What does this fold into?
Amino acid sequence: MTEVQLYDTTLRDGMQGQGMSLSAAEKVRVVHALDALGIRFIEAGFPGSNPKDIELFELLASEALDQATIVAFGMTRRRDMAAEEDPGLFALADCFAPAVCLVGKTWALHLEKVTKVSREENLAMIADSVRHMRDSAGKRVIYDAEHFFDGWRDDDGYALECLRAAIDAGAENVTLCDTNGSSLPHEIADATSAVVAALGSEASVGIHTHNDAECGVANSIAAVRAGADLVQGTVNGFGERTGNANLISILPALQIKLGYECVDPESLLRLTDTAHLIDEICNLMPDPDQPYVGRNAFAHKGGLHAAAVSADARTFEHMKPEEVGNRRETLISELAGKGSVRTIAATSGIDLDDDGAAAAVERLKELEHRGYHYEAADASFELLLRREAGSYVPLFRLESFRVVTEKRADGRVETEATIKLWVGETRYIRTAEGDGPVHALDRALRDAITEQHPEIAKVELTNFKVRILDENHGTGAVTRVLLDSSDGDESWGSIGVSANVIEASWEALVDSLEFAFQPRKSDRPPPPGGRRDQAPAKAGR
Amino acid sequence: MTEVQLYDTTLRDGMQGQGMSLSAAEKVRVVHALDALGIRFIEAGFPGSNPKDIELFELLASEALDQATIVAFGMTRRRDMAAEEDPGLFALADCFAPAVCLVGKTWALHLEKVTKVSREENLAMIADSVRHMRDSAGKRVIYDAEHFFDGWRDDDGYALECLRAAIDAGAENVTLCDTNGSSLPHEIADATSAVVAALGSEASVGIHTHNDAECGVANSIAAVRAGADLVQGTVNGFGERTGNANLISILPALQIKLGYECVDPESLLRLTDTAHLIDEICNLMPDPDQPYVGRNAFAHKGGLHAAAVSADARTFEHMKPEEVGNRRETLISELAGKGSVRTIAATSGIDLDDDGAAAAVERLKELEHRGYHYEAADASFELLLRREAGSYVPLFRLESFRVVTEKRADGRVETEATIKLWVGETRYIRTAEGDGPVHALDRALRDAITEQHPEIAKVELTNFKVRILDENHGTGAVTRVLLDSSDGDESWGSIGVSANVIEASWEALVDSLEFAFQPRKSDRPPPPGGRRDQAPAKAGR
It folds into this structure.
């Protein structure tokens, strides 16, 4: 099996994405996650650019990694300056990282319009910098040929000269960068083949692509098939503009579909968890539709699909979800039969007999007819099953509520909710203000409940969506509210449907809190529906 | 230039995506947006599956399209049943659509495990169905070869026989489907080349891919380069699991990068607006990092990049953003400079001078920073321009309102709104009940206004969408409300943004009614943004 080395630049190029920012400590967590996944090279940034990156390199110097090599990133020397005098190269030489990645120009247009450096001087800059890193600093050197494919289209001879300058000076790899993301797979394949043929076995060739044409992954695969043996990319495709090539999709394609050796097959099982963990560290919601690792990536509607998949998974699946640490899901929908309802109940630890399952299916149909839609509301669905199974534990009993929103003559808007309810034998009356009616109701409700159920305080509402179901009736139509909630460890969805948006919100709000409150086994596996992004639910929440 | 026909299946396959749901009226809006973009075939669904799709076909039958052909989608006949007796084929034959797409099997594994049909019977099912549609019903026929690439890998001879059965029976196109999304671009290219060579010039060959390997776009491009001349996909890649191939990325790659002729170059300028409009109709947030059309797709960091780009855009851009209706920079504003604001004002019949345009741009930036977003809210945007131009005519002056929603001890929910306002010199106090707070407010407001402005009664609210903008703050976050309204002849959108959903709804409600009330010329053309679905506005509404 041909080996392909994966090179992660999430911590450098990935951080160019809009709104991306990680502390040094968070970056160390990312490094360990990547190391455990089997990524060979982890680019940590430039060790002299800012205090955060300096701190990161200090932290990393004392971290023990299983197999990954930390790479420091910098530029070729400045023009008219000796390599040993260049402060950037000095910082690279001085840092602990055993490998460096030097980026330099290969495209005459850039020499002319951007850096104003002659072609000869550029070649000298590349050679001097690589040689200095290699011979004086003792580093392994990767040369990133910026704008390589644009340069290749303009003047393939000069682009190749730049690569040769790096190799002759001791670079162990030259990586062809599609910096502007302009290329399509056949162009990448053609240029990479030509480079590999021209350079022979002198150096390994790498590929670095961006997703501007939505071809970042395909471009990386095309380059590998054309002879590249190193792939630079980022986790989940983070990066500026439309992002970098997504290593999370490249890895399973290369290893499972094409038989290249990138990581230990055991490590590949961590792919889904790693992708979600790094999303979480970056404070991003995992994309449910993400290839390979998204919660919908192996989702099937009930009925025919589900039956065929259990007969032979190849009928409707492009690969085994378990190989990348993901799992198959059967979406909850009107197509669901008794069998799938019982399966779902079992994975939620609910003991539902045959009659209960039949009743649940009937109830589901009736509710879906009224506009309920459980695909994104696993919590409400679990509560529905619990009611049918007789294992539903009510959190409280509502007597009444009232919400008032007033826009006063001075233009101010104020909202206040009053709620009367019973928790066990105790009656509570609470009034709260809020930014809006749902906020005020949520506050008043929690205020009433937390005295007896302080753990409810951990539950946070993270998203709120409203839709009208029959658009022909305007504001008098039926309203569907979807709420997402989280307790910091896992997240779940709930739903409410009513002609009244306040009533629908209330229903979703109550389901969200009641779901968190239901007693369940501590070893309960994540339920299907894929809403649990992380660890199984904790007992006694 | 070689022509490639784009075939959109957003309304059928796209609706398989989790949580996707559109009304028949919303689907009609999508059809017009696709028609204006130049999409050749628009697949609307199966005309007999449910009341909503039946209604859609009834509506579409009387819509005038510029150039697109509506396609009805269905399956080949059932086994052991004559084509003319099959109820599915009957519905297809009976509907107005001039073209049908028939999906059928080509993979022996599916025949064996899923449909339990012999290879011979499957060929007969294909041939009979195509022939019946073509000869008896007079339809143009496209045959979708489901799981084609999996079938090709298992038994290329049989896969080809299935295609030939369709062509021999009169299909004008056979489309190769990578239904499970298992294939990579080189596999798609190889199989497509072989099919094109084997079929010769007998039929056109299409491609239908999914994004399971994050190669949906690259796979479509690979097929076209291998000889396919029809591409099936969805807007923004909507679809089940990881989505279908994204037509919004395929179109510019084929037309701008590779020189194929897909749409009128003028229509291509609508690409960004179309992608965002359809996101809005689906109540989805446009992806800022989306290739070609995302807000960040042509974003540059300041300094070196920006300077180089103004010297020569090729240095840091893979194509000209204007060619797809996008623009350089990370702009707060959706409509950027003074020039475009004046153009829009002119098409709405608003006389906006240079200072007014500058003030409107400033105001727009400020509002967009607060979460306003005018792509689907043309009415609110026109009112903004009118305010800056001094041609805004207020409909009324609000003093105050109060909305009360009460869930009583008997379980009933009641909502009541009281409103105090001035129309001209007259003060009105009105109270109304409603199904929900917006409904109650709308009723009370109309009740107060119609005495002096009876024409307002014609305006109907047709849709209402709510989204939270900063998802990290749950119910305390900023809420954006989008309202669609119609007077029976045309429809328009308005927007409100506030921490309070009632306040945001109120704002959108007022814009909706005030827009209808503004005096305008009878010959005003529909404004850009494609929100006017029907005739130009009438005078004196």
Notes: Residues 342 and 357 of chain A are 6 Å apart (CA to CA). The radius of gyration of chain A is 28 Å.
